[in-house]
Amino acid sequence: MLFARLPVPDIAGFCDSRSVSTEFDSAHRERLQNDAGALFQKIVLEGAIGPDDERIVEGGPEHDNFAFLLDLGLLALDPSTGTYHPVDPAIVQSRVVAPMGQRAAELLAESTGWATTFADLGLAYRRTAPRDLPIVELRGLPNINRFLTASVGDAASELLTAQPDGARPTAILKEAIERDQRALARGVKMRTLYQHSARRSVATREYVEEVSKAGAEVRTLDEFFNRLIVVDRRLAIVPGAEGTHVAIAIHDPSLVAYLVDMFERYWERARIFTDRETSTEREIAEDVHNMTIRMLVEGHSDNASSKRVGVSTRTYAGYVASLKAEYGVETRFQLGYAIGQQEMRDKAREGTPGSTTSKQE
After folding, report:
1. What's the rounded Cα separation, in Å, for the pair 360 and 329?
2. Can you list the domains of the chain with their CATH numbers?
3. Sheet strands (E) in the chain
């Protein structure tokens, strides 16, 4: 039972000084939605209920529900008649719900305070290279993504990123636009490398257009390279050897400097993404052409070759088919032989009198 006996509130008028408990929860709400609510509706239809009603006297079937309605403030005693009358729920609502809203606001403010404190500690942790942990292994895509988001959000001056494998998924690029625009708005300088094949992606072109307006620089390269993110030249993040579910966070200054130097060398050889000059497009097509020949000559499988060129296996097969047509052959064996013969002729031509090599000698 909620109460040992029925309280008789001392009120001078109708429900004007009834104190309402503020400790109500989901169990109380469910009770009001069911049994207690049904009793309240009956009392509304009857107009009032007397204290000696057999339903609500101690031991009666509705005793606890009646006591609950009193405590809630939905029933009030009329001193002139000695009966209990229903109270407009709209009046009681503010007295019950308002304290809950206040507690919710206090909890929200407290949770925000905790989140801010942890964010400050996380920032201090990521900005300080652990002397005993120059290399940290991150496992699991959720953990990796959280670390990447936080690290990029901490960037203060520069972001260097290398994104191989051609075009990136549209959903990822949409998230990246907002994140990168926030970084650029903070004054962070951003340089990104893609493979040439990314130029064919509509989503990638739209992403590059947006971030370029904000000051980012994007270039493309024919050669395969691995994924790399460098934050303020103090932290580098690279893939782990086991696969995409593992990443390595590098804090060691020497290793980070080495990776930055590699990025700079790639950057100098890369071509500006937004350059749409005919000569540039022709040079890029030639780069892809030569890269495909190189993959064939080195004997890589189609899966490995397509990954290094940054296209799907189907697109790569189309490149090979174009080479067959160019060399006038039908099989890959014939294509390999024709390419080898062409290379021999080129080398012989370079060594003939009057050639550039001969003159230099």
Report:
1. 36
2. 1-125 (no CATH), 135-274 (3.30.870.10), 281-350 (1.10.10.10)
3. 75-78, 83-86, 135-139, 158-163, 189-195, 217-221, 228-231, 235-240, 243-250, 271-272
Burial 61-76 (b: 16+ CB within 10 A, else e): ebbbbbbbbbbbbbbb
Answer yes or no: are the C-beta atoms of 76 and 15 closer than 8 Å: yes
Question: What digits encode the pLDDT tens for the residues 5-59?
Answer: 334 333 333 344 444 455 777 888 888 889 988 999 999 999 899 999 999 998 8
DSSP 206-217: HHHHHHHHTT-E
Q: 304 is written with which tokens? A: 């490995």
Span 192-235, pLDDT tens digits: 998 887 777 788 888 888 899 989 999 988 776 788 999 999 99
Residue 300 Cα distances to 197, 295, 308, 321, angstroms: 19, 6, 10, 16
239 phi and psi angles, rounded to 5 deg? -70, 155
**Other C-beta atoms within 10 Å of 158: how many?**
16
Strands 158-163 and 189-195: parallel
- Looking up tokens 């490995």 gives 304
Q: How far apart are CA 155 and CA 232, in angstroms?
A: 6
Predicted structure pTM score: 0.52
Distance CA 170, CA 177 (A): 11
Cβ atoms of 230 and 160 within 8 Å: the answer is yes
In whole angstroms, what is the distance from residue 357 CA to residue 350 CA?
Answer: 6
DSSP type of residue 168: P
